[in-house]
Design brief:
The structure is a single chain. Helix content is 29%, strand content 34%. It is of the alpha+beta class. It folds into three domains: 47-64 and 212-381, Elongation Factor Tu (Ef-tu), domain 3 (Beta Barrel); 73-98 and 177-204, OB fold (Dihydrolipoamide Acetyltransferase, E2P) (Beta Barrel), CATH 2.40.50.100; 101-176, Helix hairpin bin (Helix Hairpins), CATH 1.10.287. α2 runs antiparallel to α3 (143-176).
Length: 402
């Protein structure tokens, strides 16, 4: 009897242990039946559509004066007076320096006196030559006397011309004592003061005048970029804008846009062998003299118009372990596929795609982290950045991507 009770207790414990082992599995199965099939992940996507885009590039450059004139004296003398304020604007023909004119006035007066003397002697010499010709017909004088009289008259005439030239030269030198501005512009500091001795055509300039309105902006562009642009134009990927193709926007050193547009004047025809770049010269209006020579600026130059540009949001692009740009697309069967892209450049908060996508394909923008290639997804339209959400800065520099 005691052995029978012991066997019943053992059997009870065995049944209890089996129930505890089977019960969790049964609960899990019951929960799965109640939950139903697994849900399909949802992603937001944009449809790739072609659009017309103006492609520009930012190039660094520096400003330089439109005209530059270095003021140098053309005669020797003492500076009597400086007649301008350093750093002021001067007009063409404005008197800048006055050199002591006294010795040049004396030279002019002396030349005029010598000219008068030569002119006073000419009538008597001319009459003597005429009388000699009359007397020669009567053989009252010799031929030699007439020849000497004619030569004396010619010498007197030549002396008059000499002194006329001397008078004009003295008058020019006297005028050079007034040092005037050859161009209009802003004059810099003076290298001499009143009482300084200056010499004609000395190496050191007295001052420098620079015309600041308009002003030049010289930027450099690599020859490789020029070749790339020409290939795109020849292939039809870009077209020229005849109306605005020469308009240039300027960004100041702190990144703020300059209010006035510039005009592309020319592209240099020579490539610098040390840098592999050439110079582009831009003429920019500068009525307020906001731009000064030597300032660093950036010029936004139009490359052309892309008629069939494909743009996708930057957040839809990631990188594979090799650093190559990739994106996820959803095919007609709502299956995710991975695409390798070639990116041209960033335009605002979007990438310009050179290759890897087709028109009409759906690119995954949101929900990338919860999907992977090969799985089915539910696609909803992407609504774009929300109000107040920051987007990336505009960058039009080409990128090298495979």
């Amino acid at each position: 009897m005691h052995g029978h009770k012991k066997g019943c207790i053992t059997l009870t414990w065995i049944v209890a242990l089996l129930a505890l082992t089977i019960l969790p599995g049964g609960c899990d199965s019951w929960r799965k039946q109640q939950a139903g099939p697994p849900s399909v992940p949802e992603v937001a996507a944009v449809v790739v559509k072609p659009q017309q885009v103006e492609l520009t590039t930012e190039l660094p450059g520096r400003t330089s004066a439109y005209l530059v004139a270095e003021i140098r004296p053309q005669v020797n003398g003492i500076i009597q007076k400086r007649l301008f304020r350093e750093g002021s604007d001067v007009k063409v023909g404005q008197l800048l320096y006055q050199i002591d004119p006294a010795p040049f006035q004396v030279a002019l007066d002396s030349a005029k006196a010598s000219l008068g003397k030569a002119q006073a002697n000419l009538p008597s010499i001319r009459l003597k030559a005429q009388r000699c010709e009359e007397l020669l017909t009567d053989r009252a004088v010799s031929r030699q006397d007439c020849d000497d009289a004619a030569a004396a008259m010619g010498q007197a005439q030549a002396e008059i011309e000499y002194w006329k030239t001397a008078v004009e030269g003295a008058r020019i030198n006297l005028g050079y004592t007034r040092v005037t501005a050859p161009i209009s512009g802003r004059i810099g500091r003076s290298s001499v003061t009143d009482g300084a001795l200056v010499t004609a055509y000395q190496p050191m300039s007295l001052a420098t005048i620079q015309q600041l309105d308009p002003i030049y902006v010289d930027v450099t562009q690599s020859s490789a970029e020029l070749l790339r642009l020409k290939r795109h134009l020849e292939a039809g990927r870009l077209s020229k804008d005849g109306n605005n193709g020469r308009k240039v926007h300027i960004l100041l050193e702190d990144g703020t846009p300059y209010p006035l547009e510039g005009t592309l004047q020319f592209r240099d025809v020579t490539v610098d062998p040390t840098t592999g770049s050439f110079t582009l010269r831009i003429v920019v209006p500068n009525p307020q003299h906001l731009l000064l020579p030597g300032m660093f600026v950036r010029a936004v130059i139009q490359e052309g118009i892309a008629e069939q540009a494909l743009l996708i949001p930057q957040q839809s692009v990631s990188r594979n372990p090799k650093g190559q740009p990739i994106t996820l697309v959803v095919d007609d069967a709502n299956t995710v596929q991975q695409r390798l892209l070639t990116l041209d450049r960033a335009i605002g908060d979007q990438w310009l795609v050179a290759s890897g996508l087709k028109i009409g394909e759906r690119v995954v923008v949101e929900g990338v982290m919860k999907v992977q290639p090969g799985i089915s997804v539910k696609v909803v339209p992407w609504e774009g950045p929300k109000v107040g959400q920051k987007v990336s800065n505009v960058s039009t520099s080409p990128v090298q991507s495979n």
